[in-house]
């Protein structure tokens, strides 16, 4: 299987498309596609002394802003149509990206013990092991 | 200070409808010196739409005639128009302003869902009791000389009464079913709560961009055909419902299970700690065929839920 990623946004003037807003929600949502984040979620995000709160499907969320580790960037890619054959070449399109995101926990203040924060330890460790 | 139902609506509009807020009268001077009775009642406990409102009213024990003159009687037997009239009188007439004080707490549907969906769940009863207790305290703290408290309850009155008596040892406390039809002061509290809820629904603004008025979504009770239609039709595949809806109501839960994208949160036990996935009995009998073959991953990776994966599979 080979993978080809096309970046049609390479020459896009505005940076916005690569600085989109992203939320990491503590819930598996069986859906892949656009969502009404600006209407159904963001109006309800409250900030008090740097602590964020919000609500998803009635569940209380506690959040914090996170930036990607240095040297990393997030890119969103989409596939228009997955080929039927297993070994056929697959084509992806760059749809945008983000530099920072909001990390949300369900009814629990975000801390350094959260799995995602701990998982990012690996980036430094792997660099120490495998880096130059 | 709110002087008319229009001003009540305008006041509600200035508050965000996904948090709780308080609306209240001034404390009448006479209530600061004379011993007062206080009534507690709620409106909108059952509906799947809109806030629940807790109301209290208080007046001097010696001035209960004012309540009769206002027409405070079994509030369920009063029409919406009658209730609106009584609250208008409470907001404008000298005899009432000088003797009857009131406070309402508007408990948002979002707060109700959030409480019931916490890691350690709070029941609607706890939310209700906490609101009642905080309102009684608030009346006393603002200077009212409370000596007697009458509370309407839906559950068994004995436990509730004991709990309140423990918190307020100096008050004479009476908790009773249908208290609003027995005690005029509870009826007054009930009118404050009910009218506030009705008007909160009338001025509801959807941040979700829906242009819909209360005449279209109905009373909010799950049996109301308009409310049923709203619950059936106004579904967002990812987010479920606008914040007008109490997500924790089974009517809403069941409809989302059927019609919206499936969402799974981490499972917790009743105390709110994370459940370990149960090992099935058969796993104890299974021969471990991987023995010696698969390289065991360091616990560093297990603890961080890190696995090698290919998102393009």
TrEMBL record, chain A:
Could you state one GO biological process linked to this protein? RNA catabolic process
For this record, the Gene Ontology CC terms, alphabetical, are: ribonuclease H2 complex
State the name under which the record lists this protein. Uncharacterized protein
What Gene3D superfamilies does this protein map onto?
2.40.128.680
Q: What PANTHER family does the entry give? A: RIBONUCLEASE H2 SUBUNIT C
Q: Which organism is it from?
A: Chrysodeixis includens
Which CDD domains does the entry link to?
RNase_H2-C
Q: Which InterPro entries match?
A: RNase_H2_subunit_C (IPR052863), RNase_H2_suC (IPR013924)
From TrEMBL, chain B:
Gene Ontology CC annotations of this record: ribonuclease H2 complex
Q: Where does a divalent metal cation bind?
A: 41-42, 152
One GO BP annotation is: DNA replication, removal of RNA primer
Q: What class of enzyme is it?
A: hydrolase
| Spans annotated as Disordered | 270-290
Cofactor(s) required for function per UniProt: Mn(2+); Mg(2+)
Where are the bilayer-spanning segments?
Answer: none
Tell me the InterPro entries matching this sequence. Answer: RNase_H2_suA, RNase_HII/HIII, RNase_HII/HIII_dom, RNase_HII_hlx-loop-hlx_cap_dom, RNaseH-like_sf, RNaseH_sf
**What Gene3D superfamilies does its record include?**
Ribonuclease H-like superfamily/Ribonuclease H, Ribonuclease hii. Domain 2
Kindly list the GO molecular function terms attached to this UniProt entry: metal ion binding; RNA binding; RNA-DNA hybrid ribonuclease activity
Q: Which reaction does it catalyse?
A: Endonucleolytic cleavage to 5'-phosphomonoester
Q: How is the cofactor bound?
A: Manganese or magnesium. Binds 1 divalent metal ion per monomer in the absence of substrate. May bind a second metal ion after substrate binding.
A Pfam family annotated for this chain is RNase_HII
E.C. designation(s)? 3.1.26.4
Q: Which SUPFAM superfamilies match?
A: Ribonuclease H-like
Which keywords are on file for this protein? Answer: Endonuclease, Hydrolase, Metal-binding, Nuclease
In this chain the RNase H type-2 domain maps to 35-261
What does the sequence similarity comment in the record state about its family?
Belongs to the RNase HII family. Eukaryotic subfamily.
PANTHER family per the UniProt record, alphabetical: RIBONUCLEASE H2 SUBUNIT A (PTHR10954:SF7)
Q: What does this protein do?
A: Catalytic subunit of RNase HII, an endonuclease that specifically degrades the RNA of RNA:DNA hybrids. Participates in DNA replication, possibly by mediating the removal of lagging-strand Okazaki fragment RNA primers during DNA replication. Mediates the excision of single ribonucleotides from DNA:RNA duplexes.
Q: What is this protein called?
A: Ribonuclease
